[in-house]
Amino acid sequence: METLYGKLELMNGRWKLSGVHPYAAIRLKQLFPSVALNQVGTFLFSNRSNICADLVWFIQRFPMDMTTEDRTKLILGRDTFFEKKAYLEDILSSDYDPIMRPGLKHGQKIRHYQSQAIDLCLERRSLLLSDDVGLGKTYTAAGMLLEQGTHPAAVVVQTHLQEQWREKIESFTDLVVHKVEKTQPYALPSADVYLFKYSQLSGWKSFFSEGFFQCVVYDEIQELRTGLSSAKGNAAKILSEAAEFRLGLSATPIYNYGTEIWNILQFLDPELLGTYSEFVREWCRNDREVHDSVVLGSFLREQNIMLRRTKSEVGHQLPPINKMIKMVEPDISKLNSVKTQVKQLALQASQGTYLERGRAARELDLLMRQATGVAKASGVAEYAKRLLEANIPLLLVGWHRDVYNIWLKELAKYRPAMYTGSETDIQKSDSVKRFVQGDTNVFILSLRSGAGLDGLQYRCSTILFGELDWSPMVHEQIIGRLYREGQEENITVVYLNTEKGSDPVMLDVLGVKQSQSEDIIDPDKSNDTKLKINRTQALSNLVL
Length: 544
What we know:
Blueprint: E1 7-11, E2 14-18, H1 22-31, E3 43-46, H2 49-61, H3 68-91, H4 112-124, E4 126-129, H5 137-144, E5 153-157, H6 162-172, E6 177-179, E7 193-197, H7 205-208, E8 215-219, H8 231-242, E9 245-249, H9 260-265, H10 276-283, H11 293-302, E10 306-307, E11 321-327, H12 332-336, H13 339-351, H14 354-389, E12 394-398, H15 401-410, E13 417-419, H16 425-436, E14 442-446, E15 462-465, H17 472-480, E16 491-497, H18 503-521, H19 535-543
Parallel strand pairs: 4-9, 4-10, 5-7, 5-8, 6-7, 8-9, 11-16, 12-14, 12-15, 13-14, 15-16
Antiparallel strand pairs: 1-2, 2-3
């Protein structure tokens, strides 16, 4: 007679394991990390096909008392899992014949690799599309929205990209688009696609819970990398839960450390990585760094939740990128002017109360970055002048208003265009037009304002980073404004750094973060070194 190790039954749409033998329970917890180690007796599991497949495997080793009806349902769930897995793999094969949908404007075409992403998301119901910058993720999303079952759809974008999205969807498809204008609900006109800004989400929470939207697309989904700790994150969670289809777009979903991927997936496939505590326990060395980011990246690809193709993989041949670091001489007096403040903040950051240490560390970071940017601003401007005198159009990238003011003064005769956090959407649009049409050769761009911006590649191939960001993916987003389809020149990227101030520390920290992000997004790449930097201590040491 067969030994039974418990009872398995389908109750209220969930699988219930009860009376489980202690030894079987030990092995069960090894197979299902989401099960608490101290849990005994009864265990509940969802009826998702992947869970069914795992349960079938488990009961082959530890047979359970089951009704014939429940066993048939469990086997059906397992079979569904493998059939779906095979179909998803077929979608990604080179000879896949994609589904054609009506609704494109005359002369427009969806590329094969874009069709694969569309069909993958529609079949899986959720996808993080991390294709390389410039591969047309906007057009992929628009192509997916041709599927009638996705209407009405909500597309969430950064503030400066709402009009660009409207123009692209309407020029590419016959879809009716409405730009949401207010931060609170109002009577929406009939449309297929509704464009929201991230800054508008929190006011629409109650409306989202009504289930009006069948599909949600998050452009530059790294905007949600802090998860539910923000008002927009809470609203986005409600929007995602009510939608049938969820698509996240970003070539750089991880801006800092690897644990951000857990937050991102809460809006796409929240069950995949378990609870946050489970994710940290199984995948991380601490609450920021993933201990084996290559393995995590491979897992996400195997689960078909994340899809990334590079330009070379899809046959896009673009000129190479030439990256270099040039040192500029800083104005030491600018750094010396904050020396006393740095000493005080460094002392508070190391010896104060918990709240005092956190506040002092943040203030020290801001103070040193600003002082460094100001100290080298004139040197950066001088380097830019040499290129401008040779009639070379350039993007000049920074962060602080005081730095911009120095650049504007020293480069005044070149009439720079500005695209930072201070301009209105209309002013930003005018700046892009001035630069692209050749009215100016200088486009001053904020580090955090470049994501998603298109069109600059037709005018420019040179980027000067006059200031650094703590996130390497911010730099990649800026480079992606030029390194995209339409670029015909070799890209030159120059990091104008100084050996004083915050630059040396930032370069070290950027190496750690770059490693985490690249390993997860591109797990086939190898990174040999992982640096550990106490940036607060290092910043204070540099100036003292």
